[in-house]
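Quick log. Single chain, no ligands specified.
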Amino acid sequence: MNPMNIEEARFNMIEQQIRPWDVLDDKVLNVISSTPREDFVPEAYRALAFSDISIPLAHGQVMMPPRLEGRLLQTLSLKPDDRILEIGTGSGYLTACLSRLGGSVVSIDLYDDFIQQAEARLEQHDIHNVRLVQGDAASGWDADSGFDAIAVTGSLPVLHRGFHTLLNPGGRLFVIVGRPPIMQALLITRTGDQEWSEESLFEVSVPPLENAPAPSTFRF
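-> predicted structure:
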């Protein structure tokens, strides 16, 4: 794909996929437009970097479709000094977008090769306000807290409270909950010391986080 075709594909991605999904925040659209998604896509799928699909990654993981990435970024209402936690680094593309909308990002992934690849990609694009951590955060993250926003990039079969208490007052959590074929995207906001509000946003389906707690099963 030559540079002219790339820019045309990027424009079409925004105008035909992201805007029609009610992503209208200029800051979010500018960051998506200026962050080269094609550099974060596995080489085998580079030609599909701007397609309305979940692009496969290693370990059975995927990149979210662009329209879902846009909704996530807009929903979190990020401010320039926000401290952000990302659960699931993946390719590092969403990490890059979060870092450009907020003040700093801590991004955690189960797979060390994802961390290494994302580190190289972020360095390539001169992004230095991200700390990448290898670990299992599917049930929460005890090593840190005090976040203004949390983005969970895989789904949770059941909603647990492992992320709620990591939020500062007024902090926002984007998470997708449920099981196929229909899941619910939620915005959870910390409104008090032990109080949170919950807003249902839209229906969607994405793969679950590895090791995410599953619903209890009953045996007769």
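The chain is about 25% helix and 25% strand.
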